[in-house]
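Lecture notes, unit on protein representations.

Consider one protein chain, 507 amino acids long.
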Amino acid sequence: MSGTVIDALTWWARTKPDQVAIDFDGDEVTYRALSNWADGVAARLRDAEVAAGDRVAIVGNNSLEWCAAALGALKLGAIVVPFNHRMVARELGVLVRNCTPKVVFCDHTTRDRVDELHAADDSFQTWSVEDTVTPLRGGTHPAAPLLAPDLDGPTAIVYTSGSTSTPKGVIFTHGMIAGVMHEWHLIEGVEPDTPRALVMLPLFGAPGFIWGLCRALLHGGTLFLQPKMDPVRGIEILAAKKITALLGPPIIFEQIAAQPAFADAQIESLTTAHVGGARVPVELLKTWQAKGVALRQIYGQTEIGGSATAMPRDEALQHPEKCGWGGIFTKIRVVDADGNEVPPGVEGEILLRGPGMTPGYWGNEEATRATLRNGWLHTGDIGVLDEQGYLTFVDRQKDMIISGGINIAPLEIEMVLQEMPGIEEVAVFAVTDEKFGETPAAVIYASSPVSTAEVVAWCNERLADYKVPRYVLLRDQPLPRLASGKIAKRALRDSHADIPKTHPKVR
């Protein structure tokens, strides 16, 4: 399958003009209206001398304007760069320096932070979606010129936090997005213009932007987009709108199932329920199975398009720990430290290859060379293949925290804390959390008195709220170290695994 998201939008706007493309919590926009709205945004960007290949960033909450801004940029051949709207100005500045956007769209909730960033770096234009995108809805706008883009060229950059302190911008090409959705279409048996996907995750990540907006438009379906995670509203939409697809971390399915209305909800239409980012509890699988819905464990990374493999529906409950055996075009290998395939049942590094594999990281050739080798994506994760080729995810090689499905780099938090006066040593690692699966904990050795409240306040000023440690342990002696001189983080994590039971949350 080859083509672009805009090709699909243009086709559906012509053949199914009155079909709803996006339903934003009851505010509907049809394919014809959405394409026209995007044409208006494209014209505004073109007047500002934005051209093909320029980066256009968006930082804001989920909204129809967010979608129209992204599609308007794509109509020009610009590269869309979603920014995490929970980041503080300091964090956003790292992304701006990496992708050098020409325009940064923001909304009223992020305007102050973007203005603060712009005051220190005026290399980009700041556009408020309320002022520039909202007024363009409706009316008639000239159709944007048809483009013939290189399908192997970048169309989006999605930032992901790995084990390093600096987020890496994963490049998505036109062919990547179309290819991974074509594979999904074949495996899931999706008919054109029928998918009805519910998205309660933020648009800035691959689950929201790629698997939400782009997937819906490529298949001519309807995206039911929500402002935020709301399990009560989620149940209502699942039943009333006959949703066919919902994906996300276990927390989404847990919160929905915990609502009283779940017991009587008619949700049998949900044929694709993919769960990733954390292990799925067997009881959760059974709860949804009783409603006629097979929750299916997936495995993937942003670098492979977000999802590489999902467990077959009829085997999901029998093998809840397994993640399937790849796709029609997506292959899985498990190898040892020398790159040799290991026998079934033996742990090794998970390697992936398929249509969703990124060509690399934006402006980071070193990371690209380390991750993409000999035609395979080296995930840095540990897994096991069984005799039938089914994958079981074991652990992360990379020292990463996944909280509510969002990646958090411990090193980034550690670097922020090491800048705090008085702190000599710090180790940040994941501990269990009933709501988010994992959450950051910090063990700190300080040479002068430091309070937990001061630590939290320091982090609040420099990090997005979800990165601020929920547990802070202050020690009066240096942290243990390995023979190499490195802090023995794994030993600290193992010895402090009971922190959630023995210490109160600090925020």
